[in-house]
User: Fold this.
Amino acid sequence: FVSTRHGIKSPFVVGLRQSTQDVDTVIPRDILGPPEPLKNLQIGQKIDAFRRILESSTSMERLANFTIERVSYTPDAFVMHNFLTESECLEIQNSARKAAMTRAETITENDTKSRKNCEVAWLPSSRSEQSHQHSNLIPSLVSSVANIFLSPAVLSNPSAGVEDLQVLRYGTGGEFVLHHDGEPRTMTVIYYLNGVGGTWFPLARTSNDVNEDPCTNMNTSQMDASFYKTRSQPQNKQSALDLGKDFQPRSHGLLVEGGRSSEEDSPINQHVASIKQGDALVFYNYCDDGSGRLNWRALHAGLPTAEEDGEKWIANHWFRVNDLTEIS
Ligand SMILES: O=C(O)CCC(=O)C(=O)O
Ligand SMILES: [Fe+2]
Assistant:
């Protein structure tokens, strides 16, 4: 991802659709979603991947294996099983504690209730900001994720980048109500740092069978249009909540749930994907059909943390393309 800083020009002419105005489609398809071979991965299929880990005790590099599994078609969503080691999960938690955690606030103005009982710390993503005490863990996660999940066109877009790592600690009952991660966050990565999950996508399609699509009975083009009317900042929270009101976790959409021991356990049903400590979820927030529109089906919530789960620790990495028009 370092190359984007040097401004290698993309060969594509791209531009983001502006608010609700109709403009000609100028974004090629297959840029804002998963590249090959992830694109063609079916639900239930896995591919093997690896990343380089620097062992801090020995300063030796080793390759760590993990698997990638598709968990939803719309939005495109994947779980990376065993992406982080336990000690890496603890390192991130400890760095967040040291950085001092403050009450989490969402980007939506005048809205303090979207996130409840949740604290946040931001840790630098860029290599140059790593202090001597810090390992290169976070920058190395950025490169691994970017190289696997971003298309060549996004990787070479000079305005593409990643935000600092946002670490969240929820207490019992802590939650984040239904929302869309919003513009210009093209891709979200959620790292599960202690095995507690509860991330729910009510509108996700997790089956090849169209009858099992939670949105079959919806007028999807109208949904698209109404989402578009309300997506401007501050996000209209009520309209987001309304979109999920007829649906239930475990029966509709996709629930990314913690607590089950291993990926070998067969899931309860197609609406549930199990994660454990060190797993990560990757999903795409834009449609990849050339329209440049946000995908309203990427709406999601962090469900209230159960008492028996105690704390829930996750971290978010938001990859973004700040200005697709820049390279038009
Ligand atoms: O808590 C979760 O599981 C999801 C968090 C989330 O969606 C966010 O922080 O944007
Ligand atoms: Fe989110």
